[in-house]
Amino acid sequence: MVKRPDFFQIKTYEEFCKYYWYQKELLHICQQLDCAHWGTKQELNDRIKAYFAGEPMKEVERKTKPFKPKATQELSLSSSLLLCGFAFNQTFRTYFAQQTGVEPFKFTADMATAWRKVKAENDLSFTIQDLLDVYAGKSDYARYDNRSCQWNQFYKDFCADKKTKGIKNKMKVASILWQAVKKSDQAKVYSSQLWDKYSNLLDNE
């Protein structure tokens, strides 16, 4: 098992991504980098990515003014997301359902990530069509960082494994395996092979 190195010993963002980091750890890292140390886990990751790329880490205001829909403005595919008063509400859910033919329509994590980026950068050029392209996977304007969901998926797969059927405290055992995987450079996913690989950690369980 490869032990996770100290952050400042890591040379590239690719190497950084091999390891799991808790949000409070990312907050501390951003604080040490003298950049904004608040926000979502993805926003913190974006600042760290910019650090490794040698790019300026943009400071974003902690509070932003709410964007109010303009009731008199007719929506079109060329409408600016900021200027049309976009929100993740039933009005726009109905509109996107009409455009995609998907009913009921559900906004995706990538769409939410794109919307955060649009607001943070005050990107008036980003349109409803651009958001539809994000939904369809035709645009890489912004992608949701699913590493924040890795533990949830790990535990779900652990519980689904027939090998864990007789275990009383599944959460405890899964946590032991997760901690070992999290600190290694291997994929942050559950598999039955982990029982053999980390059998020494599970001897008393």
Automatic annotation (TrEMBL):
One Pfam family it belongs to: SAP_new25
Name by which UniProt lists this protein: Cytoplasmic protein
Organism annotation: Streptococcus mutans
